[in-house]
Amino acid sequence: MVTKETKQRGRPRSFDRETALERAVRSFWEQGYEATSIADLTRAMGISAPSLYAAFGDKRALFDEVVAEYGRLYGGFISRALAEEPTARRGVGRALREAAVEYTLPDRPRGCLVISAALNISPASAEVADFLREMRLSNIREIASAIRADIAAGELPADTDAGALAGFVGAVIQGMSQQARDGAEEAELASIAELAMAAWPRTASGATA
């Protein structure tokens, strides 16, 4: 026998899940984790609270999915640059130049969600802050690994401090994100990127590229 409960469980969703998820990405990106309420999310996503919980789980589960979607659609340019360019210097230079573009596109929230979403977060959401911090540190470790590979290949001097140089790049990227949120335009961030690369160590042969 088909009961009313069975009909409700079998009823198809009345919204497009991917569209709703994209709207959630933008909501968290604009406001951060803590400041984004369930009411904000349901309004932005165009769904009811029961539909949100049924489709995505609670706010934290939705945020985890949002971060994964953000990385897939917007945040993977650093890893791509490091993977596709032949040296760490060229990969980092490309990543910084692309950050200047990505963080200021007119049809998106400013800056980087992974960098800004945990600002002003309370102790109650410490797990979220730790989660995002680990993602940022993972990027820095990836940069450090590319730098160490260049040192081993003779592309950088043997005494190059890979950890410090990677931390410097991370600080520049995080600063560019915040400046974008403060209103800096692409050209301003591109100038910062070029200045950062001017501080890059010379290659083992003495060249800068």
TrEMBL record:
<feature type="DNA-binding region" description="H-T-H motif">
    <location>
        <begin position="37"/>
        <end position="56"/>
    </location>
</feature>
<feature type="domain" description="HTH tetR-type">
    <location>
        <begin position="14"/>
        <end position="74"/>
    </location>
</feature>
<dbReference type="InterPro" id="IPR036271">
    <property type="entry name" value="Tet_transcr_reg_TetR-rel_C_sf"/>
</dbReference>
<dbReference type="Pfam" id="PF16925">
    <property type="entry name" value="TetR_C_13"/>
</dbReference>
<keyword id="KW-0805">Transcription regulation</keyword>
<protein>
    <submittedName>
        <fullName>TetR/AcrR family transcriptional regulator</fullName>
    </submittedName>
</protein>
<keyword id="KW-0804">Transcription</keyword>
<dbReference type="InterPro" id="IPR001647">
    <property type="entry name" value="HTH_TetR"/>
</dbReference>
<dbReference type="InterPro" id="IPR011075">
    <property type="entry name" value="TetR_C"/>
</dbReference>
<dbReference type="InterPro" id="IPR009057">
    <property type="entry name" value="Homeodomain-like_sf"/>
</dbReference>
<keyword id="KW-0238">DNA-binding</keyword>
<dbReference type="InterPro" id="IPR023772">
    <property type="entry name" value="DNA-bd_HTH_TetR-type_CS"/>
</dbReference>
<dbReference type="Pfam" id="PF00440">
    <property type="entry name" value="TetR_N"/>
</dbReference>
